[in-house]
Design a protein that fits this description.
By secondary structure, the protein is of the alpha/beta class. The protein has ten helices and eleven strands. Helix 1 packs across helix 2 and helix 8 (about 240-245) packs antiparallel against helix 9 (about 255-260).
Length: about 280
């Protein structure tokens, strides 16, 4: 979890375990229900996944000028894609490099894609289209015009062999931004705000505040993760006002949460240019 800190999970029943071409994957029962682990790190659990995924998806959908076309990179469970459709998206391109992981999530997790939904998305039958490709390569050939681009990957880390780290860097952020429609938003899982584990959040904050005219921080008040959304155009966003009119009404976020949770921690604010809530 951090320098000198580790965490253990009791897995009472292993439902699925394998080493794919890209990662070690385990789905099993824990005290938080059926849970997904990638390379030994908890990614989502039955008890808290909605809190996580709404914190990932709701702020950028409120910040975007419109929500018609959405790109999701990572997020193997499929919850982000389903929330995008509920938020009004007519087309959702879901890009994930690990076919085995996506199919195992649909088969064994009680949230996200059902097997039938995933099969339809693999065929391109419906609003969601699943692409088993590298996110970097997909962006090089993607058609511009996305209203929301969401990056939902395992944590950025200091392992030089971690291939997903390049999908957090400045160049990848620029590639995502180049695909945006006017008023479009790029959003990313940005790490943990706790002071002993916030290096990736500070780095992400610096990249976003350098790249975008408007940056919205959202730190979940019931989870340990933070998220950043960026829009090229400047201006003060009215997230609370847009929440009242949104097509999707979240269960874990209300107007009060938006007021409080969009204030970045002091250490984060002090690390780069001042933005919303600072």
């Amino acid at each position: 979890m951090g320098r000198g800190i580790s965490r253990s999970w009791d897995v009472s029943d292993v439902l699925f375990e394998t080493r794919t071409e890209f990662q070690h994957l385990l789905i099993g029962r824990t005290a938080q229900g059926i849970s997904l682990f990638c390379d030994g790190e908890r990614q989502s659990t039955e008890a808290t996944q909605l809190t996580y995924h709404e914190a990932l998806m709701v702020p950028p959908m409120l910040l975007a000028g419109q929500v018609r076309r959405v790109l999701v990179i990572g997020s193997s469970e499929g919850v982000a894609s389903r929330l995008a459709v509920a938020g009004g998206a007519e087309v959702v391109d879901h890009v994930d490099i690990d076919r085995v992981a996506v199919r195992a999530c649909a088969e064994h997790l009680p949230y996200g894609y059902t097997p039938a939904e995933l099969a339809a998305a693999e065929r391109g039958d419906g609003p969601v289209r699943v692409h088993y490709r590298d996110g970097w390569e997909f962006l090089a050939r993607a058609e511009p015009g996305y209203d929301v681009v969401v990056i939902d990957l395992p944590d950025e880390n200091d392992d030089p062999g971690a291939q997903h780290n390049r999908l957090y860097g400045k160049e990848f952020l620029e590639r995502c931004t180049a695909l945006l429609a006017p008023g479009g938003v790029v959003s990313s899982q940005a790490g943990c705000p706790t002071m002993w584990r916030n290096d990736t959040l500070v780095s992400a904050w610096r990249r976003f505040t350098e790249a975008f005219g408007t940056v919205v921080y959202y730190g979940s008040d019931e989870h340990e993760w933070a998220f950043l959304s960026g829009r090229v155009e400047g201006g003060e966003p009215d997230l609370e006002g847009r929440l009242e009119k949104a097509a999707y009404r979240p269960r874990t976020i209300d107007a009060t949460a938006l007021r409080g949770n969009t204030v970045p921690p002091l250490r984060v604010r002090a690390s780069g240019p001042t933005r919303r809530g600072a």
